[in-house]
């Protein structure tokens, strides 16, 4: 009985210490010189992408900055050119199977989208501002997201994470070669 009371007392003390620490750091982190609030400089841009879920920006010398993103409810993969002065222009949209959830760049001209209904990673090549599907990698789970763990010399190690459940899928991908 004594040890449970000590455990409860220890938990209460720990909670009070954590609460005090959180309150002490939150105010201090917002204060700048002479106690004034610091406000981060932000730039906002409005995109014509309804219900955007996962996506990623990639900047390259030849193409500038581009955003690849999925429109979850309309099941579209969208390629957007980001320009100076908060300008954005949709370059292309391609239909995906039901409920795409995430997208990532593999290279300056190669993107991958995680697609729930087809249980696949769909790979697209970017050619002159247009998306052209080159491969569909069936992963056997409805992927929620895709991450590029490593890339080099035309080889990509991808991680597909599940929409639900505990199973993740590692994919070693080389364009044009079969995946196991």
Distance between the termini: 57 Å
The radius of gyration over CA amounts to 23 Å
How much helical structure, as a percent, in the residues?
10-25%
CATH architecture type of the largest domain: 7 Propeller
Major sheet attributes: 4 strands, antiparallel
- CATH superfamily of the largest domain, by name, is YVTN repeat-like/Quinoprotein amine dehydrogenase
* Total E-strand runs: 11
> Which topology of the largest domain does CATH recognise?
Methylamine Dehydrogenase, Chain H
Tell me, what is the CATH class of the largest domain? Mainly Beta
Mean pLDDT: 82
Strand proportion: over 45%
Low-pLDDT windows of residues: 2-30
Taken together, the total number of domains comes to 2
The SS-based structural class is alpha+beta
* Number of DSSP helical runs: 1
Strand and helix order: HEEEEEEEEEEE
Question: Order of strands side by side in the largest beta sheet?
Answer: 1-2-3-4
Shape: globular
Please explain how this structure is put together.
With 180 residues, this protein is α+β, with helices and mostly antiparallel strands. The protein has 2 domains: 2-31; 52-173, 7 Propeller (Methylamine Dehydrogenase, Chain H). It is 16% helix and 49% strand. It has 1 helix and 11 strands. The protein has one helix at 2-30; strands spanning 52-60, 64-71, 76-83, 87-95, 100-107, 110-115, 120-127, 130-138, 143-152, 155-162, 169-173. It has a 4-stranded antiparallel sheet, with no helix packed on it. It is globular, with a radius of gyration of 23 Å.
């Amino acid at each position: 009985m004594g040890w449970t009371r000590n455990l409860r007392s220890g938990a209460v003390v720990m909670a009070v210490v954590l609460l005090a620490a959180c309150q002490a750091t939150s105010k201090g982190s917002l204060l700048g010189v002479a106690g004034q609030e610091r406000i981060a400089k932000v730039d906002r841009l409005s995109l014509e992408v309804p219900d955007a879920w996962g996506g990623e920006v990639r900047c390259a010398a030849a193409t500038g900055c581009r955003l690849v993103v999925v429109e979850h409810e309309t099941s579209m993969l969208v390629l957007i050119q980001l320009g100076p002065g908060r300008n954005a222009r949709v370059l292309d949209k391609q239909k995906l199977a039901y409920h795409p959830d995430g997208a990532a760049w593999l290279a300056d001209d190669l993107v991958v989208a995680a697609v729930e209904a087809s249980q696949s990673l769909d790979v697209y090549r970017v050619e002159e501002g247009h998306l052209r599907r080159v491969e569909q990698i069936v992963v056997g789970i409805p992927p929620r997201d895709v991450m590029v763990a490593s890339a080099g010399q035309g080889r990509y190690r991808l991680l597909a994470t599940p929409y639900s459940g505990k199973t993740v899928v590692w994919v070693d991908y080389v364009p044009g070669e079969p995946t196991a």
